[in-house]
Amino acid sequence: MDPVVYFFVLGLAARLLRSDLKLPGVLYESLTIYLLLAIGIKGGVELASHPAGPIAVQVAAALGMGAVLPLIAFPLLRYAGRFDCYNAGAIAAHYGSVSVVTFAVGLAYLAQRNVAYEAYMPLFVAVLEAPGIIVGILLGRMADSGREARWPLLLREVLLGKSIVLLLGGLLIGWLAGPTAIAPVKPFFFDLFKGALCLFLLEMGLIVAARAGDLRKAGAFLLCFGILMPLLAGTIGATVGWLVQLSVGGTTLLATLAASASYIAAPAAVRIALPQANPGLSLAAALGVTFPFNITFGIPVYHAIARFLHT
Amino acid sequence: MDPVVYFFVLGLAARLLRSDLKLPGVLYESLTIYLLLAIGIKGGVELASHPAGPIAVQVAAALGMGAVLPLIAFPLLRYAGRFDCYNAGAIAAHYGSVSVVTFAVGLAYLAQRNVAYEAYMPLFVAVLEAPGIIVGILLGRMADSGREARWPLLLREVLLGKSIVLLLGGLLIGWLAGPTAIAPVKPFFFDLFKGALCLFLLEMGLIVAARAGDLRKAGAFLLCFGILMPLLAGTIGATVGWLVQLSVGGTTLLATLAASASYIAAPAAVRIALPQANPGLSLAAALGVTFPFNITFGIPVYHAIARFLHT
Amino acid sequence: MDPVVYFFVLGLAARLLRSDLKLPGVLYESLTIYLLLAIGIKGGVELASHPAGPIAVQVAAALGMGAVLPLIAFPLLRYAGRFDCYNAGAIAAHYGSVSVVTFAVGLAYLAQRNVAYEAYMPLFVAVLEAPGIIVGILLGRMADSGREARWPLLLREVLLGKSIVLLLGGLLIGWLAGPTAIAPVKPFFFDLFKGALCLFLLEMGLIVAARAGDLRKAGAFLLCFGILMPLLAGTIGATVGWLVQLSVGGTTLLATLAASASYIAAPAAVRIALPQANPGLSLAAALGVTFPFNITFGIPVYHAIARFLHT
Amino acid sequence: MKTHPRKLLVVIAEAALERQLVADVKRLGAQGYTVIDVRGGGARGDRGADWDADRSIQMEVICDDAVAGKIADHIHQSYFEDYAVTVCITEVGVLRPEKF
Amino acid sequence: MKTHPRKLLVVIAEAALERQLVADVKRLGAQGYTVIDVRGGGARGDRGADWDADRSIQMEVICDDAVAGKIADHIHQSYFEDYAVTVCITEVGVLRPEKF
Amino acid sequence: MKTHPRKLLVVIAEAALERQLVADVKRLGAQGYTVIDVRGGGARGDRGADWDADRSIQMEVICDDAVAGKIADHIHQSYFEDYAVTVCITEVGVLRPEKF
Ligand SMILES: Nc1ncnc2c1ncn2[C@@H]1O[C@H](COP(=O)(O)O)[C@@H](O)[C@H]1O
Ligand SMILES: Nc1ncnc2c1ncn2[C@@H]1O[C@H](COP(=O)(O)O)[C@@H](O)[C@H]1O
Ligand SMILES: Nc1ncnc2c1ncn2[C@@H]1O[C@H](COP(=O)(O)O)[C@@H](O)[C@H]1O
Ligand code: NA
Ligand code: NA
Ligand code: NA
């Protein structure tokens, strides 16, 4: 297991043992900003050296996949899980979108095994963030004809949320600057990346443990959903990646993205757009089940699927 | 254009598009402290290897220049701009002092072009911070015989403000420790410098965009002043640098300092010493016009002037 | 003197001159977390390559020493210093425990002189943190039969305080991951260490100067105690280190730990467990006298003692 | 020192509502507002401010009776059902009556 | 807008007491609480929040008279002697009386 | 629980005034004060606390009527004209009357 995961476990253990360990909220915010920018810049630098044509096809496929995933999750939640429209839509929105930190753990996983991947993969993080949220919210609001929708506000909230702005901004900066001009910021944005990720995962462990109560309330269905949905989505993601001719590494990362559930952008957008949904449910599943599952067992599984497809 | 400037533009764009991207205030404060210390230490390490005599002359010249700049800005503001005494003095104080971040962008600009400069230039940042503020405040208070002056308090505020303390402290530490003893802190204070500067400029972009309203209220005169004053001051700075026999790089940096307007030390001091002045005006000019102008067009111009003078 | 100490002096001077320099509280917290984790990880990586037997003996000896130190401090404070039971116990608890930053300055001191030491020394920091606090509190409560003790709560507070969790957690992670897997986080956790320590010491200087008032109230006895107690404890620590066959470097570090007084874990635990004690007294001695003494004069003295014992 | 009676309306709410609440109180006639980052707990569980979804704010608005009533009613209708929100109102005295 | 009278109990205390105070007010019948990080000064000197030992919090509890009395009495007995603690009580109006 | 009537004076002001305000209230007879970092908006525009010049604080002082009056008057004279400052006063009850 990659050592970054140990930090997650340390955070988990500390909180469950009721230690007073706490990371300042501002540190968490700062690390988020750093990780998003760093991932973006890294991807952007590489983007320049790739032909635009094939990438455009891949991006379009990813966009489609992002819009389809909540369409799969929603009926599962609504009919198998017996959630109301609001909660089914809210959870579907979380699973339709992506988790940047899961992606970062995936990067670390591949790096440690020397598996090559398309270096512009961060582009897909940015591309996959929004569609799932928007479709999930649409599904959740179908029943809700009473309230006015305020879509312009909502779209801005989603499309200009900090994750997309920092990822796309970083991509653009990396792309415009190119490898030579980016070199002086390498020690900051590249060399520190994995250490910062460790600190971030420590905090994630603390947060997940603090929400253990939600998990208990969430019930058995959500627990299963939190494991089966990423396996299903990961398989879909791997298949899409394979179809659009990503490498094994790239396919693994696209599968990881598909399998991951958002807990930065989605909760904020859903809270405003689907206030009737209980945020505890989405977060219990996304943070409490799927995130730990993905960073421990999920990523190796997606890697195996990717290798299987490419043989 | 140096990639650090892209980060400024990213911040600008994010806020103007009304993204919810926000850097925690504490991160801004921490980056300020880091940049000031790092600049100071870097300069201090080099100071040891230079003869004190010529530097003393250069410092004296810089001090004089710092005191003269507000004397030029004040009548322009008072008579051409028709500002009252308080506001003219306040704005003159901002332009008399210096902007550390503009200086840092200047350093990055020269480094990218492999232009050598006197490595002890940070000394001038520390030296130039206070005189302009003090003279500007004096000018602003001329009309104001009613209130008691509280100069001791004010001088402490200016001379022991955090920027001077950190810059001079860093210089002293670098000088005392020397290159060998400083080596173990190099990865922290030197290698991360440019990356931290990027993050800082991102925040500057956000702040400048947030104050765009002030800019509209400030009027056309202040807009022009915000561009012409740095060009004038930059020319003066370049001339002084050339007279005291700084290299082309050093001359460029002294011009950059002269042209830059303070937005850390000056606003705090002026707010206490000239409360009647509208802080929105000074900041609109210093932050909203002069800072972006300097980091994009100004620095190359001052570099060109410096080269011209040295041929 | 190691340059890290200059930063302490800078902080001291800035506050005594009443500069407005202030490090955000969150930066202080973040640096604490970083230093603890980094020290732990570094020690853990080395732990793997050492035989467990001798280390177990050394750890047991350290544990015993940690429990004995407050038993020496308490009667001194109670009878020579005429403090009441509560304050004597509280101060004894601070001196029985250890200061991580003093340890870090010791590491820097040895590194600069190329003195080798057992790389698993951080283990002793974790081991020595708790026993002194617990014994000190026990001593302070002897007279206090009225209040119920709430020991379970207190033990959790002490044993699961953030310093022990982060140190032990870091040790465990370093040990599990081993040198190869840790390599990618080296730039973050190892290379930045000394720079982060500088920033931390700057803040320590500011804090110590802010508490200068306490020092004046604390009186002459506490001033002497703050210098003589570390010398005594340092000698004991060096002797123990020599007996359990630590190297000269290791002996110096164990002496430094014995001589150091806690100001992170102890104040928090003592405030809850011995509320009748005046926290100003313990902190005046531990922070105001012993900390500055140790990082300037103490560590070289303990090094000299260690060398003397090993010849 | 002569003071004039006004209301101080205090709203404790999820941080996600900050933008909307600021817009609401301005629209309903408040001439100013103050916001504080807080943590807390209540009917909707503990909100420890550890991360985004758990952050809360406290908004304070000094205003006259009519505006206080309008804001309280609006919050009642718009947010009480779905969000972690608490409202209380105090009598305060102010120096510059025209300001509130 | 009809409001119901309740008490707002404000406790300013050393941050070290936060955990205990939260447990106390819950045990004594408060249905919610809000905590703010503050700095300040008083009889026990200036507490500038520069570092752990100097941090203070302000806890606000809206509750009925009986609970307010119990909490105030408990704080009086448990903390006034040894800790930097300040307590005050205000009359407030609330919209949902069953909540407090 | 017997309480004694006092005033709670609340001052919301630019952060640049913190040092002066602390000195002022001490000089005018307050035996303590509490300061909170806030953001807000009013007649002088929005102050989002994004950076130094935009930061605001809220100072709370519990004191008797006379001191409250003196502080309010002083702030009125010294700061109202040039600074973003808001003041309000509430009736509160305290447990230890000698403390305020
Ligand atoms: N009785 C109370 N006193 C003070 N603050 C409260 C109270 N009840 C709730 N709050 C605050 O309001 C927020 C939302 O309350 P609730 O909707 O009851 O969960 C909580 O997180 C607390 O910060
Ligand atoms: N008169 C007062 N007004 C407002 N806050 C106070 C007052 N007295 C004390 N405090 C707050 O309560 C804390 C503890 O007070 P003390 O026990 O008097 O030192 C102080 O640090 C202040 O934050
Ligand atoms: N009506 C109000 N209610 C609450 N806070 C206010 C009000 N008016 C002003 N403030 C606060 O006081 C600060 C200064 O107010 P002003 O001088 O009106 O700009 C603002 O930034 C707000 O934080
Ligand atoms: Na997904
Ligand atoms: Na200038
Ligand atoms: Na010790």
Explain the overall architecture.
The complex is a heterohexamer, with 3 copies of chain A (311 residues) and 3 copies of chain D (100 residues). Chain A is an all-alpha fold. In chain A, 80% of the residues lie in helices and 0% in strands. Chain A contains 15 helices and no strands. In chain A, helix 4 packs across helix 15, helix 5 packs antiparallel against helix 13 and helix 13 runs antiparallel to helix 15. Chain A is globular, with a radius of gyration of 18 Å. The mean pLDDT of chain A is 92. Chain D is an alpha+beta fold and 100 residues long. Chain D is built from 2 helices and 5 strands. The mean pLDDT of chain D is 94. Chains in contact: A-B, A-C, A-D, B-C, B-F, C-E, D-E, D-F, E-F. The interface between A and B is medium-sized, with 27 and 29 residues. One sodium ion binds next to helix 4 of chain A.
The gist of it:
The complex is a heterohexamer, with 3 copies of chain A (311 residues) and 3 copies of chain D (100 residues). With 311 residues, chain A is mostly helical.
SSE run of chain A: HHHHHHHHHHHHHHH
Structural class of chain D: alpha+beta
Alpha-carbon Rg of chain A, integer:
18 Å
Question: Biggest sheet of chain D, open or closed, and with what strands and sense?
Answer: 5 strands, antiparallel
Output the helix-strand order of chain D: EHEEEHE
Bound molecules: adenosine monophosphate, sodium ion
Q: What percent of residues of chain D adopt helix (DSSP H or I)? A: 25-40%
Overall average residue pLDDT of chain D: 94
